[in-house]
Request: fold
Amino acid sequence: MIPQKEKSIMKRYTKIYCSLLLIGLIGCDNVDFGETNVDPDAPTTVVSSGLLTNAEKTISSLVTDEIGDLYTQHISQITYTDGSRYVTQNWDSDYLYKGALTDLQTIINVNSDENMAAGQTVYGSNANQIAVARLIKAYIYQYMTDTWGMMPYSGALQGLDNPYPVFDTQETIYDSLFTEIDEAIAQMDGGTGPVGDQLFGGDMERWKQFGNTMKLIMALRLSNVYPSPTGYAATKFKEAMTGAISSSDENILYPFLADDNNDNPWQDNFQTREDYAVSDVLIDRLIADSDPRLSVYAEYTRTSVSNGTPEYVGMPYGLPNSEILASDVSFISSNVIYNGEFPGMIYMYYQVAFSYAEAVELGWIAGSASDYYEAGITASFEYWGAEGLSEYLAAFPLSTDSATAMQQIAEEKWKALYLQGWESWMEWKRIGYPVLEPATMPLNGDDVPVRHGYDNDYPSNNTENYNAAVSAQGPDNLGTHVWWDTTHPITNQ
Reply:
């Protein structure tokens, strides 16, 4: 980091140099170089539709990333087990700032600029383009702050105008994101939706559902810091309910295509090597509960099929040295790993239904927690095409004891959020159920990660603000709890 005094000197000499350069240019004869240095193939205007498509692809990458699935032990690695053992402590976030967030800010800027806005209406109404960009920005920033904690936010995306942004607190970021969501929804107009929208094809009613569902999930994430039925989080939760998705027909999915340029990443993973299986933690739990989703979440082992006695076997989680063969454990459902068009699950109705069940138990809303709990289970069974729903519901009714009921809701949500790694991880961090044992001989830390360490560049590129964040938040490692994760039963008791 450049000392302030040296920066001042550099600025002064830069101004002198620029002044001399300007004088030199003014003193020269006017020379017309024509189009010598003009790239005929370079776009002369911002193509908002392409920026939007690129930003939405970032969402698709986040919702199909396997790291959260490894942390919550839905899956386990077979041969190369480092990911299961938390090999990476410091995770890159620059790609989000330089990629999707910059693209989205550009959409907002050009559609807000009086000199450029008219030219952007070919890609949809200015207001709708801005609104969608703001909602996706909120989604990405929520992911970032839930993953790293304090992050550059209010001062980010300003380029050379602010090369050393402060790290805002999670509380500040969450509060601002709620406002961003509300304002984005309010500014939507009756014009056309944005071109390049892969999620909803420019359907602004669906974008309203996206924003309200995000707000609802965010509000519940604050239940430990704002538990009051009349408090901040409960208020935000209730505001979002009428606009959030209300059935499985409204699930919010990223539509992957058979084309290799935009296909399901799980298929790509299994084209290169078969190194992921359903974990023994999940399979053993499903077997113990006689849960029919076992047959749609996992495949029989190849060895057992060839022996004539098909069975499900989970991959032991996080082994330091694995000699287990891929043929001896249960793979993820073939409909996921060999289907290029299996969609990315962003927000599903079963997560919303379980959230309502929890909100009833918290006293935030009226209604039957049992009904919402059963609706969540039902939606999960229906989405995956599992049979035996009525028998399962009869075997696992919601307890009338609130503490037991909350654990049941959390564990059913954990089951339902299979292959939704980041949402599963965030919900597990907040509630702490089921209780998960860490990998054998973790490579970083002593427990299941509850956070990611900052980008390796931060300590040298933004030293002062990085140090302030670590001082306020805690050590920069996998074990420091984020702000809203206050009652995690594994390490906070």
Observations:
- The chain has a mean pLDDT of 90.
- The chain has 21 helices and six strands.
- The two ends are 40 Å apart (CA to CA).
- The first strand starts at residue 75 and ends at 77.
